Amino acid sequence: MALDCGQVTVLGAGSWGTALACHLAGDERTVKLWARRTELIEEINTCRENKRYLPGIFLPASIQVTVDLEQALAGAEVVVFSVPSHTFRAVLRKALPFIPAGALIVNTAKGIEENSMQRLSEVFISEAGPARAKNYAVLSGPSHAEEVALKMPTAVVVASASQHTAVLAQDLFMRENLRVYTNPDIIGVELGGALKNVIALGTGIVDGLSGSDNAKAALMTRGLTEITRLGMAMHANPLTFAGLAGLGDLIVTCTSRHSRNRRAGIAIGRGKTLQQALDEVNMVVEGVRTTRAAHKLSATWGVEMPITEQMYQVLFHNLPPRAAVNNLMTRGKTREVEELALAKIKW
Ligand SMILES: NC(=O)c1ccc[n+]([C@@H]2O[C@H](COP(=O)([O-])OP(=O)(O)OC[C@H]3O[C@@H](n4cnc5c(N)ncnc54)[C@H](O)[C@@H]3O)[C@@H](O)[C@H]2O)c1
Ligand SMILES: O=P(O)(O)OC[C@H](O)CO
């Protein structure tokens, strides 16, 4: 049952913002879509299509596109952020003066701010103040825009410091084709959504190198272990990583042809430089910045993250991918479940 609210404003007219605007349109409400580029407005107004970011999807007339942030946000009861995570602080800062008090804010970006190492809810609080945290939710999980736009069955999760806000966001997005769960663990949901991109770059590299299914399964499983280990140090609920924002998104991003992170990894595995891979994908590949942030977080929290370490060396220090694989395979022997004590399983 969709939330009965008036105007929704979506900030960011890339693949995800456009797909979510389409998803939310059509319930007798106005959806305003804020885009950065004027050319996109002309294209959408004439063709009702976002050809670069979501080709082949019809945008209903109830979606109004604008480049004017003040106009986009006037009267908004819900504001959905769908800008790349590294631009979130700047866009938020510009938007805040125009966001009506009490509006529900849903962030759909997946990343960790590189310099501050802040999760995006922390970025939000640092800009908007703690009083607004109760209106803030994050939406995450395995949800490629191309499939949501085609109404393919999808399940996602919303997390918020406030249960009331999480349920409002759940009601807003829930449809026959989109099942929405709530989770109080905002730390885990944010970390899962951001860190899976590092692993997806890695499985993409394996696809580019050899296509070994065994190696990809090992990377996904051990990747999830190190994400969970960092998450636990940062006070997330370990079970969140077994859910949609953890395992679910890891699976889709590591295996889908739609994944930009995986595609960038494939190009690197085939011998392209990082820059050549990014140029080839030509859309946001958040795993690159997230690898730097995760590398710093691993040092800050004193958590061992061997896959992240090797990805960091490949992306930023020209370590050949085959050498990275070899480094991972020849590490000292260890136990599978390091947190044995926590799991209360003892020999
Ligand atoms: N595409 C998906 O399937 C999907 C699914 C779930 C979550 N997300 C998340 O949504 C966020 C947006 O991803 P996307 O796939 O829509 O990206 P995209 O590459 O398709 O589009 C990025 C959009 O952001 C705009 N942009 C770039 N820099 C900007 C800036 N400084 N200010 C304002 N706008 C700027 C671009 O013009 C473009 O419209 C990311 O954090 C991503 O992880 C994406
Ligand atoms: O295309 P990717 O690799 O950035 O992944 C997009 C979404 O995070 C999938 O849920």
Write the layout of secondary structure elements.
Layout: E1 8-11, H1 15-24, E2 31-34, H2 38-47, E3 63-66, H3 69-73, E4 78-81, H4 88-95, E5 104-107, H5 120-128, E6 136-140, H6 145-149, E7 154-160, H7 163-173, E8 178-183, H8 186-209, H9 213-233, H10 244-255, H11 260-269, H12 274-281, H13 286-301, H14 306-316, H15 321-329
Parallel strand pairs: 1-2, 1-4, 2-3, 4-5, 5-6, 7-8
Antiparallel strand pairs: 6-7
Helix pairs in contact: 4-5, 8-9, 8-10, 8-11, 8-13, 11-12, 13-14, 14-15
Structure description:
With 347 residues, the chain is α/β, with parallel strands linked by helices. It folds into two domains: 8-184, NAD(P)-binding Rossmann-like Domain (Rossmann fold, 3-Layer(aba) Sandwich), CATH 3.40.50.720; 194-329, N-(1-d-carboxylethyl)-l-norvaline Dehydrogenase, domain 2. Helix content is 49%, strand content 11%. It is built from 15 helices and eight strands. It has helices at residues 15-24, 38-47, 69-73, 88-95, 120-128, 145-149, 163-173, 186-209, 213-233, 244-255, 260-269, 274-281, 286-301, 306-316, 321-329, and strands spanning 8-11, 31-34, 63-66, 78-81, 104-107, 136-140, 154-160, 178-183. An eight-stranded mixed β-sheet has the order 3-2-1-4-5-6-7-8, with helices on both faces. The longest helix is centred in the middle third of the chain and has 24 residues, at 186-209. The radius of gyration is 20 Å and the shape is globular. The chain starts with 7 loop residues before the first strand and ends in an 18-residue tail after the last helix. The structure holds nicotinamide-adenine-dinucleotide and SN-glycerol-3-phosphate (G3P). Nicotinamide-adenine-dinucleotide binds next to helix 1 and helix 4. Keywords: Cytoplasm, Lipid biosynthesis, Lipid metabolism, NAD, NADP, Nucleotide-binding, Oxidoreductase, Phospholipid biosynthesis, Phospholipid metabolism. NAD(+) binds at residues 12-17, 145, 260. It is an enzyme of class 1 (oxidoreductase).
